[in-house]
Design a protein that fits this description.
Shape: globular
Number of strands: 11
CATH class of the largest domain: Alpha Beta
Strand content: 35-45%
Structural class: alpha/beta
Number of helices: 6
Distance between the termini: 38 Å
Bound molecules: S-adenosylmethionine
CATH topology of the largest domain: Rossmann fold
CATH superfamily of the largest domain: Vaccinia Virus protein VP39
Largest sheet: 7 strands, mixed
Helix content: 25-40%
Radius of gyration: 17 Å
Number of domains: 2
CATH architecture of the largest domain: 3-Layer(aba) Sandwich
């Protein structure tokens, strides 16, 4: 299975506009306030740091933020934005550093872009290894939305306004818990196609994978304002700590 998905120039040049339309700029303050509570004013590592949407404002609150990303184009966006955040090119499924962090976090569904169970486990293992003794791992992840597939296919409407129509076309690969997807973004007379593959995971499987690498669930919320995680939740924010002996 092709697991080499990388945000290319097309993704990067549309990322900030998409994140805004998707409501992810509007919630940055809440995201950062949540993460700051777990960073003990010390150090944090972001997995899939992107353009620094979260890392930059978190670093402006005095947290020493570092990050990993495998996309040159996204790292360039980050570099244009700040020199406060140290970031390096790497795969979040397999990284090592001597540094230990108070907080490691992986937000905005980045974790599901690791399209195999092995890659997801490797990511959790790498993250656990770089946490300090009291360190915390935070993962923000959508609840799988598997309703509405017909013959293994579904198209959803992500956003519509006067200028933009953004659709998401999915094909289900149930053996691998993968959705093979393309964002189709129509604006004016142009259409952009932004493909990706993702592995969906229910929260209990995520907990089981975390337990395999020595982490245990400490808290789970339905949003960054610490709303309850319920059967109606569309995503969860899961907080893991080292398993107590
Ligand atoms: C949805 S964006 C999130 C960016 C940023 N974390 C945010 O919240 O705005 C996913 C990011 O993860 C990066 N990424 C995806 N797979 C990766 C991998 N295997 N290793 C490192 N970075 C990865 C992408 O290049 C992209 O910057």
């Amino acid at each position: 299975m092709d697991n080499d998905f990388i945000y290319d120039e097309d993704w990067a040049s549309n990322y900030q506009h998409f994140a805004r339309l998707h409501g992810r700029i509007a919630e940055v303050d809440e995201t950062v306030a949540f993460l700051e509570d777990y960073s003990s004013g010390g150090s944090a590592l972001e997995l899939g740091i992107g353009d620094g949407r979260v890392a930059v404002p978190l670093s402006e609150r005095g947290v020493r933020v570092e990050g990993i990303d495998n996309s040159d184009s996204m790292l360039e966006l980050l570099a244009k934005r700040t020199d406060l955040v140290r970031a390096w090119k790497g795969d979040i499924a397999d990284f090592r550093t001597e540094q230990r962090y108070n907080l490691v976090y992986c937000v905005y569904n980045t974790f599901k872009l690791l399209a195999t169970r092995e890659a997801q486990l490797d990511c959790l293992r790498s993250a656990a290894e770089v946490l300090d003794d009291q360190g915390i791992l935070v993962i923000e992840f959508d609840v799988p939305a598997l309703e509405g597939f017909v013959n293994g296919q579904k198209t959803t409407t992500v956003f519509v306004d006067h200028e933009n129509t953004i659709l998401n076309a999915h094909v289900h690969d149930p053996l691998n818990q993968n959705l093979v997807s393309s964002l189709l973004w129509f604006s004016g007379t142009s259409v952009r196609r932004l493909p990706y593959r993702a592995r969906y995971v229910y929260h209990q499987e995520l907990d089981t994978m975390a337990e395999r690498v020595g982490l245990e669930l400490a808290e789970r919320w339905g949003d960054w304002a610490r709303g309850a995680f319920t059967e109606g939740s569309k995503r969860h924010i899961s907080v893991y700590r080292r398993t107590s002996l």
